Structures are given as C-alpha cells and as structure tokens.
Amino acid sequence: MFSSIRARLTFWYAGVLTCTLLLLSLVIYWIVKRSVMARTDAGLVELADSFLATLDAELSDATPANDVAAAARQSMLEHHYPGHSFAVLSGGRLLVSSEELPATAREARHTEPNPTISTETLESCVAPAKSPEDPFRSLRGRRGGVRCYVRGFTAARTPCQLVILASLHPESELFARLRTTLGWLVPFTILLAAAGGYFLARKNLAPVADMTARADRIGESTLHDRLTVQNPGDELGRLASTFNRLLDRLDLAFERQRRFIADASHELRTPLAILQGESEVALSNPTRSPDEYRESLTVLQHEARRLARIVEDMFTLSRADAGQYPVDRRPLYLDELIAECAHSVRTLAAAKSITVSVQSGGELPLSGDESLLTRMLLNLLDNAIKYTPAGGKINVASSSTPAGAQITVADNGSGIPREFHSRIFERFFRADQARTRGNSAGGAGLGLSIAKWIAEAHQGTLTLTRSDATGTLFTVNLPATTSTTSQRG
Ligand code: ADP
Question: Helix, strand or coil for residue 181?
C-alpha cells in the first residue's frame, strides 16, 4: 500500500499533523475550560460577598434583629440573578432557600432557569466541602449540571452556611460548541493538508518517474541519451545531473573499450596475416630448400614474438584498467636501475651505432616496483633507439628533486611532429603509422601508454618535454613516497 514515496510521505505527514492537532485541540479545550470555570468561580465568590453584605445590612436594620431567615430571604430577593439559586443553612438544617421566593421573583426576568435546590443537592454541596480551600463542587445533572459554592458565616451569633448554586448550562453550551468546532476543524484540516501534501509530493516526485522511465530505456547502444534536468538547483535536478555525469563516464569508458578492441584486432590482424601467408607459401611448395624453410620459420618466429608482445601489452593495460595489476613497492636505488637498463639496451643500440650515455645525479633511494620501473625505462630507451637514426646519441640523466626523483631520456632523433604531441600517450597511437605498421622496428603503439601508467601507478608523471628536429626528451618525475632505509650492497 505504501510502496510509493509519495504515499509514504503523505501518510507520515498526515500522521504527524493528526497527532499535533489532536494534542493542540486537547490543550486548547483544557485551557478554555479552566479559565471559564475560574471565571464562574470568581463570579460566585463575588456574589457571595455581595449577598453577605446585604444580609449584614438587613440584620442590622431588620426587626427582630436576630431573624436571620428573614434577612436572608430579603437578601435573596435582591440577588436574583439568572441561573443562580441560594440556600442558607444553620446547624446543617435548611433555614431558607430561593425556592421559597415567589416564582415571579425567582424567574420572571430570567431566561436561564435557576437550579433546583433539593436536599440531595445541598447534601452533595455541603458534605464534601470539608476543606476551606476547596469550597466549590461541580454536580452533574440536566442542562450541564451545576456549580455550587459553600461559604460559612456567622449571623446573630449563629454559625451558618451560604450555598450558591450556579447553572453550568451557558458554560456547557460553550464547551459543546468548542468541541463541535474542533471536531470538524481538525479532520477537515488533516484532510486538506493530506490532499495538499499528496498533490505536492506527486508534483515534486513526477521527475523521478520520468527519470526512472528514461533510465530504463538507456542501454549499451543508447548510452549517449541523457536524463532531462528540470531544475538543476533542487535535489532531483542534482541527482539527474550526477546520473548524467555517470553516463558520460560510462559512455567514455565504453567508447574507449570499443576503440581499444577495434585497434587491438586491427593490430593483431597484420602479424596474423603474415603468419598465415608465410606458412601457406612454405607449405605450398614441397620442393623448397632447407634455407628457404629456415627463412620462412624466421619470419614466423618474428611475427609470433611480435604477436606475443602485443598480447602481453594489451593484457597489462587491461589489468591496469581494472586495478588488478599488482604494484609491488620495495625500497630500491633508482640510479642503479637506470644503469642496468642502459646496460641492457647497449647491444641493441650498438647494432645501430647509437651510443647510450648515463648521467647519474648520485644515489636515488626510492620505494617502487622494480620490474615495472624497469619496463618503463626500457620502453623509453627502446623508443629512443627505434626512432633515432644510426650514429645517434641517447642520454639518460637522473637527479633528485625536492619531491623525489627525476629521470630524463633524451635522443637526437628526428622527433615527433608537433600535431601528434598531445596524442602519443594514446593507446595504439603511432606518429607515423605508415612507417611503423608492419615494420619490424615499429611497435603496436602501446609502449608509451604502459610507461605512463607505470609512472602514475607510482603517483608520478611521464611527460613529453620536448620533441623537434633536434630530438626528443621525455621526463619522468617520481615522488619519494617512502624513503628507503636499506643500505646499498
Ligand atoms: P610504439 O610501440 O609504436 O613505439 P609507443 O607508444 O611506444 O608505441 O610510441 C608511440 C609513438 O610515439 C611511436 O609510434 C612514435 O611515433 C612516437 N615516439 C615515441 N618515442 C619516440 C622517440 N623517442 N622519438 C620519436 N618518436 C617517438
């Protein structure tokens, strides 16, 4: 029943409002009742004062001077207020009551009938009035019941009690009116508020239904679709914007993935085609010489190695993307690592009459993954050798910086055309596709992507600092996140 947010919101809203209004109504009713009764009681006290003052005056004027009943009767005649009855008791016995007055005097001008004075009424009023602090009693009865007030006094040396009964009919009518008003006002307000709340919730949550429907329609092929942002300032607008940004990232990731797969299949096609072609040629002619077979097998081996390298690079990058490539950081000396890498490429460089020099800036302790850092340096050096003509020079320099260590790999090759500077770290990108594709010197365009990822996996950077007709310079900055304490062996 309450599965939708708007129904739940309305329910809670109406529930809280009902409790609040009920509590408020009870408090209002209680306050009004108390103040009205206090006013009635104050009126009774005033009436008793005035009655007794008149009684005193009558006693002092009257003949005989000790006829309390006559004086009280006279006082009652002077105090015939609507809805009020009087009784004077002496020694627990009724001396005189307003019942004895002529009917015209009692009720002639009264719209509100006076309460009836009966023995039971008097007993109920007088008997419990033991404490002088509580001289009031409310008696249930017809037309709202009565309020009685008992006051002791002494007249002609006789202890007497004055009992005044006030009809509670006007008060009970007022209370009934208040109850009726609150009785319809509270449910009406709740209904109105619930309907308004439901309408507002419906109106404000309408974009959610729209967003749900649209989000449902977005699939792999429609990832470029976006949710409508109706009000960018409110919570739902911000949610839609966040969702759209998530879609942007997903779209980009999907696009990158699609391009990666397309580029990868494209790259793999060339060596595979060579493998297929070469093996078909070798097998088609049964009269081939052993030298010819050897030549074919060498081509097959070369392409198989190339294939293995591309697959290995792709695997590295896909594991890196998934955050699954382990980076095993250990204390190491970067200057030693550089010297080893330079040493291992010297044979390759010598084949092209290229000299590789190392310029060391002293000890460079660092915490890093040795095999990954070696791979990064070899990729840079391998590129430098590949793209530097015979007789060229390569220089690897290292130095310590306030943040950690810096390595530069410089060559005096022909450089990278300026328009490709921003793209050389893209996967499968090669500045000279025609020159390198299918050429034994050219790679698949993954070397720099991997080198950059390795630098970043060490919280460092790899940048192309300069590349022009005089050569190319790559710079690696690695922060010394954990300085090593190991001693050089
Ligand atoms: P590849 O496997 O093709 O070398 P990389 O990602 O290592 O792929 O390099 C991308 C491209 O950047 C290369 O194809 C080449 O055009 C260019 N490049 C990289 N290093 C150098 C360099 N030292 N000198 C000139 N061009 C370079």
Answer: helix
Residue 67 Cβ < 6 Å to ligand 1: no
Task: Give the closest residue (by CA) to ligand 1 atom 13.
Answer: 430
CA 39 to CA 46: how far, in whole Å?
A: 11
Residue ID of nearest Cα to ligand 1 atom 21: 383
Centre of ligand 1 to C-alpha 416, Å, is: 8
The per-residue pLDDT for range 395-405, each reduced to its tens digit, is 999 999 998 89
Q: What is the pLDDT of residues 178-224, one digit of tens each?
A: 999 999 999 999 999 989 988 888 888 888 888 888 888 888 788 88
* pTM, to two decimals: 0.59
Which letter, b or e, does each residue of 329-358 get, where b requires 16 or more Cβ atoms within 10 Å of its Cβ? Answer: beebbbbebbeebbeebbeebeeeebebee
53: closest CA among 80, 71, 70?
71
Q: Which residues pair with 146 in a beta bridge?
A: 139, 167
- CB-ligand 1 contact for 471 (6 Å cutoff): no
Pick from 354, 377, 387 the residue to mutate for probing ligand 1's pocket: most ligand atoms within 8 Å of its CB.
387
**Cα(489)–Cα(487) distance, integer angstroms:** 6
Question: What is the Å distance from ligand 1's center to 205 Cα?
Answer: 54
- Looking at 285-333, list the stretches that DSSP marks H as alpha helix, in order from N- to C-terminal side: 290-321
Q: Which two tokens stand for residue 203?
A: 């109106």
**Pick from 466, 211, 481, 194: which is nearest to 330 by CA?**
481
Rounded distance, CA 80 to CA 108, Å?
10
- Where does the pLDDT of residue 370 fall: very low under 50, low under 70, confident under 90, or very high at 90 and above? very high
Highest average pLDDT, of 117-126, 195-204, 295-304, comes from 295-304
Residue ID of nearest Cα to ligand 1 atom 14: 430
User: Is the CB–ligand 1 distance for residue 472 below 6 Å?
Assistant: yes
Beta-sheet strands, E only, within 304-435: 330-333, 355-359, 365-368, 393-400, 404-411
Residue nearest to atom 8 of ligand 1 (CA): 445
- What b-and-e string marks burial along 22-35, b requiring 16 or more CB atoms within 10 Å of the CB? eeebeeeeeeeeee
409 pocket-lining for ligand 1 (C-beta < 6 Å): no
Closest Cα to atom 20 of ligand 1: 383
| CB-count exposure of residue 298 (10 Å: 0-12, 13-18, 19+) | exposed
Q: Report d(CA 50, CA 45) in Å as an integer.
A: 9
Residue among 424, 468, 476 to mutate when testing ligand 1 (max atoms within 8 A of CB) = 424
